[in-house]
Amino acid sequence: MTHAHLTTWIVAFILFFVALSLQKNGKDKVVHMILRLFYLLIIATGVGMLFSINIDIMYVLKALVGLWIIAMWEMILIRSKKGEKPTILWVQLIVAFLLVLYLGLSLPLGFTPFM
User: Fold this and answer.
1) Fewest beta carbons within 10 Å, which of 35, 39, 94, 115?
2) Where does this polypeptide localize (predicted)?
3) Whole-angstrom Cα distance, residue 88 to residue 102?
4) How confident is the prediction along the chain (115 residues), in pLDDT tens digits per residue?
């Protein structure tokens, strides 16, 4: 389940930047819809992983930060499409990404270089 979750995150990360670059030409609708499908896959695999272990508050925090990242991706795409500046959203995305990386690498499930 961990590999599926990580794979969906990586594919969604790539799709986010593809949708962002295609947005300038107005051809991002299909990619954006596929990205939204990957949001659902990320959430489904994350919930599956969360309930397959003993739920700890740190894993719940990591899940909430992961949802924060998904929300920032979606809000950045929407604001960029409307022509508004998403600067503060990019800052939030970077903070959330660093936080989820730290939590993911420091918790015992998976690869743990900080332990």
Assistant:
1) 115
2) Cell membrane
3) 21
4) 778 888 999 999 999 999 999 987 878 889 999 999 999 999 999 998 888 887 788 889 999 999 999 999 999 999 998 989 999 999 999 999 999 988 888 877 766 565 5
Q: How far apart are CA 111 and CA 88, in angstroms?
A: 31
Taking alpha carbons only, the member of 27, 29, 47, 49 closest to residue 39 is: 47
Residue 19: both structure tokens together:
């949708």
Buried-exposed string 5-39: b where 16+ CB fall within 10 A, e elsewhere: beebbeebeebbeebbeebeeeebeebbeebbebb
Which residue ranges make up each domain of the chain? 2-106
